[in-house]
Design brief:
The structure is a single chain. The chain is mainly beta. Strand 9 and strand 10 form a beta hairpin. The chain is 0% helix and 46% strand. The termini are close together. Strands 1, 2, 4, 7, 9, 10 and 13 form a seven-stranded antiparallel beta sheet that branches. The chain contains no helices and 16 strands.
């Protein structure tokens, strides 16, 4: 499986590919594409990488009504079952939620609380051979995402396992070069 994520930081976006084994961690602010203006990047020392995504969108009752979407791209060498974990919180401590989609199959994920928690999306998704897209749709205002994990391992749990390597950003020539630096950040990919 390989993954693609955006450059993050000042506005996110971009894209690139990094090889992994069975699991891929995406920093939420390093999306490959974004629709709408209600997902914002927040600087926060309690977030991995010092930033996370916050939804400023008004409540949305269904995925078809959501006008704010973050996309994360991954490719797989073969079809597989897939599982998604999201590190999230609700800044005011009430219940917050997002819609999560992989290749057209979606599920609601929710959490109550101000503290960052890893939450598994209660759905088995399917990875295609080739290109795949994870999408996050806004649902509740002030719900925040720090990271996402896409894994082929049904037993994987980030609460008691090491985190996978993060999908790296790219710049310049559109691929990750050894020691590449963009916006002052070293973007070496580890596989």
């Amino acid at each position: 499986t390989t993954g693609s994520s955006g450059s993050g930081g000042s506005g996110g976006g971009g894209g690139g590919i990094v090889s992994i084994s069975t699991s891929l961690l995406f920093e939420a602010e390093r999306y490959s594409s974004k629709v709408g203006s209600e997902f914002i990047i927040v600087k926060d020392s309690s977030s991995s990488g010092g930033e996370h995504i916050k939804s400023n969108a008004a409540y949305t009752s269904s995925i078809t009504n959501s006008k704010n979407i973050l996309s994360y791209s991954a490719s797989s060498s073969s079809p597989s079952s897939a599982y998604i974990w999201i590190k999230m919180r609700k800044s005011d401590g009430t219940t917050g939620s997002f819609f999560v989609e992989l290749n057209g199959k979606n599920k609601l994920i929710s959490l109550a609380g101000k503290d960052w928690k890893w939450v598994k999306v209660s759905e088995t998704f399917n990875l295609n051979s080739g290109s795949n897209t994870v999408k996050i749709y806004s649902r509740h205002k002030n719900t925040e995402i720090d990271s996402l994990i896409l894994t082929k391992n049904s037993a994987y749990n980030p609460n008691n396992s090491p985190l996978p390597n993060a999908a790296a950003s790219v710049c310049g020539n559109g691929k990750i070069d050894s020691g590449e630096v963009c916006d002052g950040s070293n973007l070496n990919a580890k596989s």
